[in-house]
């Protein structure tokens, strides 16, 4: 089956919620599309729509320079293929931090909050490829940040897929980390805890529907239309809350129940599966944003959630190696008519119409018409 295509105009969704909520939301900004917009234009769109947080999958100089002085908080990324080199050499980690973090930490520079070391490196479909290199790479990057004098403001973390934990009973209270990576996870948790760094997890309720035909559809949404999952004195009415609290239970079982959590990715596709369509995507986002607006958190963690929506653009050149329907490798559509910098985009043909221009024309890498 072709990979899922996410055709959700995220900024238009954000524009429908209160400004205070929009400013608390983050978005994922990938660069693996064949028709990318100039980074400066993207940054202006984010600012125009009140987006204050961005999660990147790399640290491309053009993107970082565009973010300088924007006031947008940034999580920069390190691709999985660089983990081995960073794990084997502290000098490599020092140089990476120098070139991609400290270089931008100046007045009028980039507000870097986190370094994402790898992306879902313990995903089961990677068959353990990055299990041995993730922790030492994380350790070296955090050490380099500390020695550069940036560790108090910039924290190294690892975005994990939700498949690193499970519940044999399907109840959140029975949450636990997978046995095959438990010792590795505990090493990472200890380092995160020592540096007061959040645990980052990517949660996709859509996958519950995709992976099981018996999964109750309404439990993937937030309207309470399915039979709740009863767990001790708690009734779970949606899989998002249940998933988050399964993680919290898993953290408690290994002694890190108070570790902060960031939702690094959450989204819903509109193509590539019978449950991937615009109607269900809108239903999901409407419910998610209403939930986030309450700032009630989850039953086990009654506090505001930091959430990054996935994602800004159609990344049609992104690898789908982890699987046919790899959500983190899926492509998302361009944002149509959403900001003061563009009013329309002809998808797939590299054309854009800027308000400064008289008519739509092919745009260059500099953003000129």
TrEMBL record:
<keyword id="KW-0378">Hydrolase</keyword>
<dbReference type="GO" id="GO:0005975">
    <property type="term" value="P:carbohydrate metabolic process"/>
</dbReference>
<keyword id="KW-0732">Signal</keyword>
<comment type="similarity">
    <text>Belongs to the glycosyl hydrolase 17 family.</text>
</comment>
<dbReference type="InterPro" id="IPR000490">
    <property type="entry name" value="Glyco_hydro_17"/>
</dbReference>
<dbReference type="InterPro" id="IPR017853">
    <property type="entry name" value="GH"/>
</dbReference>
<protein>
    <recommendedName>
        <fullName>glucan endo-1,3-beta-D-glucosidase</fullName>
        <ecNumber>3.2.1.39</ecNumber>
    </recommendedName>
</protein>
<dbReference type="Pfam" id="PF00332">
    <property type="entry name" value="Glyco_hydro_17"/>
</dbReference>
<feature type="signal peptide">
    <location>
        <begin position="1"/>
        <end position="22"/>
    </location>
</feature>
<dbReference type="InterPro" id="IPR044965">
    <property type="entry name" value="Glyco_hydro_17_plant"/>
</dbReference>
<keyword id="KW-0326">Glycosidase</keyword>
<dbReference type="GO" id="GO:0042973">
    <property type="term" value="F:glucan endo-1,3-beta-D-glucosidase activity"/>
</dbReference>
